[in-house]
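Archive transcription. Copying these from loose printouts into the bound notebook so they stop getting lost. Printout 1 of 2:
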Amino acid sequence: MSTVPYTPALTDEYGRLWRSSALLARWSAEAREAAEAILRHRARYEVIAADPRARAPWWWIGCIHHMECSGRFDQHLANGDPLTARTKLVPSGLPKEGRPPFTFEQGAIAALALKNVADISDWSIEHALYQWERYNGFGYRLYHPDTLSPYLWSGTPHYRAGKYIVDGKWSRSAVSGQIGAVAILLALIALCPDIGVAAPSGSAPPPVPTGLEIGARGWQVESVQRRLADLGYPVGRVDGRYGDATRDAVLSFQARNGLPTTGKVDDTTKVALDAAQPKAVAESRAMATAADVADHPAVQAATATARLAKRGGVFALLGGIADGMKDDPAAAIGAGLDKIDQAKGLVGRVSGLFDGVVGWAGAHPGACISIVVAAVCVMVVARANGTIAAVVDRFRAGHDMG
């Protein structure tokens, strides 16, 4: 991959851009959310930074984590690939040591070691910006020098448009939808006085978000949903959509924590969510439903089985009805009832009924087979529903059934 040497001219450029950077208002809520997430996990980034192969400032690592993985800890820091295997996208084959699944720390150390960050002694803001651009690649600087890399500058006045829409394919009009590392760093500086990086003169801290409510979408909503789920409040599917289930979970959280029950995640509710401790099992999981365990493998398998069995049962019954209508089913049933009336004694009545049923079954074997198949399908559906109910019960009891 092409590189760009760090020169005094680049130092001046990065310094000038930093001193004139600011956080655009429309990006302030997302910048603050990302910064808060990085601060929550600061200790994990510091553990990575303490490894001799990955020495770098925790905030520099945290911003990369948001850029590459949206803050998720089940992905490789190198490129966002899942930790269940070595990286497949560029850079591929990481980590070179160990066996999957890997921990986030293993993947992060391997990614940072590949960039030789441990050899860096200069972590001034100018050099940190250079290293961020180097981590992502110098494609913008080398081939489109009139466009500053959105990896750094999206969310600031220094970036407006132009991006690679896929690897190697450039669009002058496309606009990056991802916030840049500098915008996140500006929010971090405002929230964390001991970060050790001075904010550009004249830059204001990001304003407090106005709140999330019904109809909101995006990764901020997903972050709230995950936090509520961690605390034991059922939100249904974690999908980044602020719907009725998420609002009900917010209302429950607000009511239990003495907050105004607005159903809206304002700054007060957000602070309380961040500070809250997981509830007792009996309190937090007692109202769990099948939707809260929908991602469990046993539930997914049972749901799929039940769906197939229902379809099979319907087709079997339809086939049985078609077979039974070939002759005159009413006449066959009537003949059986006549035999019952004519029989004397319990044995005669049972025998007459049996003869009638056997006679009709002999004339309609397809219908009988269909009835048996339908009965089996009903049993399969009942068993699948029992499996789902068992998973829900164990979840309510505090067992995740991994």
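Printout 2 of 2:
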Amino acid sequence: MEVVTYLKIIGRYWWLVLLATLAATGMSAALSLTRAPSYSVQARVVAKPATSVLTTTNDLVSMVSEMSMRPVIGTFAQIFTSAEVKQAARAAVGLDEAEAKDYPLQANVLPDTTVIEVSAKGRNPQLLTDYLNATVDAAVARAPGLFGVIELQPLEQATLPEGPTSPVPSRDIPVGGGLGLALGILLAFGMEYLRTPRRVEYEPQIRSLVPNGIQTPPTLPQLPSSPQSLARDDMRVINGGQSQPRQQYLVPGRQHPLGWQNGTDPRADQMAQPGHKEDSFPG
């Protein structure tokens, strides 16, 4: 059971898992309680045809179809982060340029709409809200001068946030503890991996086949001699080409297929004569 094995590993290194969990939880709590809170606000603006310029229905319908093109609305989204609009918004709330860097602005077009969402982050919620609303007002006032036939209209102004977006101790501390627990379990598995010696694959099978770790060559079984084997007629060449027959091995009580009896070759006397040459040895 792999699950039981994993639980045993975690139980063996419970102190390491606990230490990692406590350390991560403590760090999350320290950061959440000591870091300065940050707030976030949003506002929405819609782009629409300028009714003061376009008076006929055909012109309005044509302009609506043109506004559905994303490059057109994306161009209007860039107005909110332009230097002119930022300068007008800073002057409206009494914010200098150095302090404005702590309140970054961002404008994005919502999918499949002509609505632009403007968001900002900062540490002072009241100043942040006023700065974003001043930015929206400045962008709306300058939008008609871009194309002349499209204008921006505020849909939703920024309101004072109820609480900080970060840090949130009730969210950050449990998340930090969970990450510490996961890290502790991974460390436990890593310690067990380093502690366990490497084993050769199929080692138990090899040890069962070879006792005491001594490898011996396999012994082949001896094949029994066949009683139906025929006699050999091998000749050994000696004395400059002369040959003499080797002893024939026949099965007792059996007759050779060529008619020899008791291992006697009828050609033996002829082959033993001086000057006789065997046909199978040319020259």
